[in-house]
Specification:
SH3 type barrels; 16% helix; 7-stranded antiparallel sheet; globular
Length: 117
């Protein structure tokens, strides 16, 4: 399966430790570049979680509304401080959608902030 930057997948993130985002199937946003995604390496993602009724105003997270294009069923908080590298075997289903360029730009900014770049 071809995995592309900006796509959103639902994947199992277990096993986890401590405060890592938990064991449920979660939406993840592919952040790594397509050249790396096409190689037998890992895919860099930003995990998401439900944003139900949460007023989030932190520089390290991005709230993305559900749209037909991104395939999310509800507003989702992408936690840019919890970047993960995942093996290709975790991507067992096709992407549910693609993040809009303006939201991808917000995620990129939040990742830069989280990493001090």
């Amino acid at each position: 399966m071809s995995i592309s930057r900006g796509e959103i997948y639902f994947v199992e993130l277990s096993p986890v430790l401590g405060r890592e985002i938990d064991k449920k199937r979660r939406p993840v946003l592919v952040l790594s570049i397509n050249d790396l995604n096409s190689k037998p390496l890992v895919v860099t993602v930003v995990p998401g979680t439900k944003a139900a009724h949460k007023a989030v105003h932190f520089k390290n997270v991005v709230v993305v509304p559900a749209t037909a294009t991104n395939g999310l069923s509800e507003a989702t908080i992408f936690q840019c401080h919890q970047i993960r590298a995942l093996d290709h075997c975790r991507f067992i289903s096709p992407p549910c959608g693609t993040l809009a360029p303006e939201h991808l730009n917000l995620v990129e900014s939040a990742v830069r902030y989280s990493l001090g770049l």
